[in-house]
Amino acid sequence: MPSQIMNIGPVPCEENAAQVGRPDYEERSRRECQVFKRMLERLHPVPADCQAGLVIKSFPHDFGSYREVCVRYEDTDPIATGYAFDLESNTPAEWDAIARYELIWLERLEVLNRAVRKGEMSQDDIPAAFHTEQLPALTAEHTFSQLLAAFPLWFSA
């Protein structure tokens, strides 16, 4: 069956995305796309028996490759095609509270892992919340402030 790819974007349309060519692009774009994909899956789940799914793809650019979240769908499946076009036209403008929390959590995890790799701290010094490298299970009814209170992101080195 013919598969199509529709670019959705690297982040919600009114948010600033990592810029290709910047020193932090690889790390930041990977994190942003991961969180954006999770947010889209949460807000716009793929219907059952639908031949569609969200993927993160890299594309060539004059200054290197760039990443985007895309929807891959079978264009012979009307439900999949409808899902893809509905997702494109209803892409969130901003990060929701869960996504904002996840972005910061993943950034903190990267900082901790980098410090361990550089020998600036030991694996035992990593706070327990970051040991599994799994994002906490968060629920949508909480504000960003409530998420921070329930799942603190600060730590002392």
TrEMBL record:
Name recorded for this polypeptide: Uncharacterized protein
